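Forum: Protein Structure Q&A
Topic: Joint prediction for protein chains with partners

I've read a bunch of threads here and the consensus seems to be that you should model interacting components together rather than docking separate models afterwards. I'd like to see that in practice. Below is the full input, 733 residues plus whatever partners are listed. Could one of the regulars post the assembled result?
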Amino acid sequence: MRSYWTWLPALALASCSSGGQEQTTLIIATVNNGDMVRLKELASEFEATHPRIKLEWVVLEENILRQKVTTDVAIKGGQYDIVTIGAYEVPIWAKRRWLASLDDLGPAYAADDLIAPVKAAVSFQGVQYAAPFNAEGTFTMYRTDLFRRAGIVMPARPDWAFLTAAAAKLNDPAAGTYGICLRGKAGWGENMAAFLTMAHSYGGRLFDERWRPQFDSPEWRTTLDTYVGALRKWGPPGAATNGFNENLALFAQGKCAIWFDSTVAAPFLSDPKTSKVADSTGFAPAPAETSGKGANWLWTWALAVPISSKRSPEAKQFIRWAAGPGYAAIVARHAGWLAVPPGTRMSLYRNPNYRKAAPFAEVTLQAINAADPTSPSRLPVPYIGVQYAAIPEWQGIGTEIGQQFSAAIAGRVSTKDALAEAQAASRRQLAAAGYYK
Amino acid sequence: MTARAVAKRKPAYLRKHGQILVAPAVIMLLAFSLAPLIATLRFSVTDYRLLFPDVTGFVGLANYRNLIANPDFWPALVNTILLVGFVLASTVAVGLGLALLLERAVVGKSVLRLLVISPFFVMPPVSALLWKNLLMQPVSGFFAWLASMAGVPAFDWFAKAPLLSVALIVAWQWLPFATLILLTSLQSFDRDQREAATVDGASSTSIFRHLVLPHLARPIAIVVMMETIFLLGTFAEVLVTTGGGKASTNLAFLVYSQAMLQYDIGAASAAGIIAIIFANIVAFFLVRAVGRSLEV
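Posted by a regular:
Agreed with the consensus. Here's the joint model:
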């Protein structure tokens, strides 16, 4: 007992002194997109102002990141202090209590400044679990010069009937322009994102309240016939395997008259260095149908703290800096306003400097504001998400169905057979996962 | 008789120490191959999904049943065989031709060899992207340009012939491997033997058929075996170009899309076991067939 008293002060002193100098190292797993790579470069500013925190980066391709991070978090490996996850993961992970709540980021984070649908996308049952870093919606891109020459006027709110009619008129393969470009490449994050958004806008849904697949509904029939029909008649050859990147290249080369896709494309198409059609590209809202709901998808890459991290106070400190309102000005100072990660904060869209630099700012903001992942269809749905369903099985189901729909675009199966296969495949997969017990 | 008895006793004496001496190697081998195999077998009969950590337990053969019940399973198996078969046949045939030509090359042999090897150093996803977007793209690709020069409509490769397109890309990647192995063994072919045959009045075709080809039997068997091992796992080319589907999904991609994407360790393990059995069957027959037909 006596010896206890003699070494206690020494221990207290030791812990005090080490507490003053000891560095905390945060391990951050992130995706290799342009915005995140820039964050990694600019993070030296954070380290300079926070000498006690050292950052270690693990930058990975999207699919690999998803695999590594999911595995680590699921087995509570505690390898990462901050992980970059998408809107798809947030509700799934939050439900399993894998993420620390980010409701306590404080006034410096200005949570009220977040665009409402984006904040909703990273929240679960009213609690915020991830800090949005960038966000995207959907819109229609079109060639203003071709529209003017053909005497077509883009309405304030186009629908699919208008877009397909315009595509038919503007399709001119001899001159190297095709009426419409859409995603065809199979994948839950490729063609299924576009198909599902379109079906939602027609008032359709993936599953009913008892998880029964709805691919036999008239809404899906219309969706597939319109989408596949348009691509087969007025789309570019090879459309069945064109993903986002392929379409971006085609549009930038002036090969597409109309393209419905993510707002991420806007900065590339507006820049004369990366686009041949920079001064003749117009932006309009996403095609909406009868229901007026579900026409806009929403995606965000967000920073989150796994519950297994032992350094969550420091992790939150970094998130406050990287996803906070002050980060935009830091990027602007180094790389200009166009390089600021878009889509997350109202303050960016109120900034006159940003609006001057980004001609697509208003339509992007409208697209994101119009999205509602919690209620994507006119009918009630048991899942969250517009261009995905936030259930663990969706990646597998979406990929399998996407393969059927891609085959329909290629003309190897009819749209009717593709839908029947989709119905059977999703039922089989959900049954195997125990949804109908 | 005595010599045999001595020979028999000696290994027995050696066996004791020999066993101890090889033990570390055997233990390592067991630890690194048998232990994971047993773990995989165990996982394959359990319900083990990373995203449902609270649901676990023995499920018997349900994981295997689900996999085989998938309508894409049998097409994937057929696609795998077709893909491996096409790539093996084309790389061995074209590789042999290239090797024969390269052996005869008088000038620039080293440069030529370097050029021939280069596709092997391109990573699979990169070469898939290269072929998809620069060569086979029906709007702006090189083949489409050639077709327009000839006045014929461009061929939509991945829509019309997805498996053949993937197989072409993979064959292009593995051609250097076959060429290189066959070229080195051609160079080790005894020149005196060839000269003797020529003096005896053998034609060049019969020299090739009766001397060169038997000499190449073993290297061809090696090419076939090595390529089969890697080709059964072809994945990146399918992911990058078509994203799968009945017409182009192979076994590796099916496992990825049905098990890996959903973090279903049980299903992935079951698929892995099936893949191991399948690979062993394929390798067994292929190597035998090739070895026998050429060693006569």
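Residues 1-44 of chain B form one domain.
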